[in-house]
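Morning run. Coffee first, then this:
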Amino acid sequence: MNSATQALPRKSATLAAAAITLALAGTTTNSPAQAGTTWERSLTAVVDSGLAHATGAVHVVVTASAGGVGAATRAVTASHGTVRAPLPIVDGVAATVPASQLGVLSRQPGLRAITLDRVGQFNSYSFDDTQTASNFVASTGAGQAWQQGYTGQGVGVAVIDTGISPMNDLSGRIVYGPDLSGEGSTVDSYGHGTVMAGVIAGNGADSANNSKGAYTGVAPKATVVAVKTAGANGAVDVSTVLQAMTWVSAYASQFNIRVVNLSWGTPSTQNPSVDPLDYAVERLWKQGIVVVVAAGNNGPNAGTITKPGDDPTILTVGAYDDKQNSDLSDDSVASWSSRGPTAQGVTKPDIVAPGRYIIATRSFGSTIEQENPKALYPPSYIRGSGTSEATAVTSGLVALLLQAHPTWTPDQVKAALKSTANPMSSYSANNQGSGRVSLVGAMNATPTSAVQSPSSSGLGSIEGSRGNQHVTAICNGAPTTIQGEIDVRCEPWNGSAWTGSAWTGSAWTGSAWTGSAWTGSAWTGSAWTDAHWTGSAWTGSAWTGGSWQGSAWTGSAWTGSAWTGSAWTGAVYDDFLTAFWGNRAPWWKHIAGEVSEPRPGLAQTP
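And here it is:
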């Protein structure tokens, strides 16, 4: 076992213990915000989303309250199921239950969760690029890394996005960080983050029997760390993303987070030398985390790179079309992929990666799934295109690279990927950066001794970071546009206090972070079951400790009323940078270079 693997929390040899994750997730609620709130159990057990479309007899893990093996046994029997084995380690049983009885089972007294029993499902799962239907695995060289034993195992990739739903392709490899969306759930209601996680680390479990190969991600054994920042409409404020990056910084060592995927951007042109977003990504970079950021989907015009992809330090990714084949001669930069230079004249993107016709895991019932039925691939996949996908492909490649070279710094990773990229002769550097990413070359590169010098002060305007994109929250009981020098909690933004504060675990214990915004599902996950909390107090029922001393994140609690779903308006379809879903963009969404759906009653729009 390498050092990267040891840094991650240990898992059971079987995945039955992963039921702890779902047994905890979403099973508790708390009363209106106040420090020291007592948490209460839900009257209905949480049902694994992987069971949503189950038919016939299904194997499940049923967990109950402490010492509840007997309660779980009685519940299974009452639901016409059969207990296969007691599982006292999770206070439950392994059972076989008719799918039609899952609802009845979830309402039995004393239960916490019903989880799809995935024990042994992936233990012997092999990875071969001849057995995957994901062309980007072959075109980037990821498949060759698999053959050398590099699958991303032990490497944590934080996905700051709309959450990650517990899909089969990611089973046992999701760590749930905070829910900053205010929804009080780790479920990905918008659907974007689950797609990114699948591109990065899906193992193709739901498509293993596909005759054309499974829909795998790039690093099929990597751990994905879900940091949810947006709810069902996909809108998020800059201050929320900054808070997400603060959390990643605080817990990077605990979960071996070596990569951050940021498939998000704003059209801001504020100078990176003062911008808060640029400061945050640079701070993570200096901490040893490779920050991979989408260039944006605003091409083909020059000067369309979005923030923080404009930062000269981090790795900015554009998208190219690999035409679903291995022929390099027909590759092209996607017309919608944003081009450089940045407003400050920096050449961007740094590289391009496959970003067109990418099939990956979807979140059942999510906004994206409901709005794009033609993009769905059974049983649990969706097809999309964008620099979001290209960024996720690259994050997976970085995970493979860091498994092979765990001592490499972010600067060395970036230099290796840029120096070995394969340029397209007909495109300038501001279209493609150094060219198409090539993992084979990067794996064999000699690490550079050059060190970049991040220089952002972070003392610029948070409003300037937004680029005229705004969300609405409830401030003092009234809908308020979050605009100007305030954060999403309607409190004054103090850049000097935020940049000067310590981004440590103890910063997450203040009274400002208690209350109904932190529901039971917000701080659970496979890694939290055996995590060690140091430097802060975690009592199991409340967050204790002082408020954020010396930081701007003090003040009133994030109450439930301030985070209601209806309060979040002003969502933009491309907030999370996906150009389109399926074969065509909707008729009302014009994407340069793509064919749109015909408008009802009218001719097709180019």
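Confidence is low (pLDDT under 50) at residues 1-42, 119-124, 507-574. Good start to the day.
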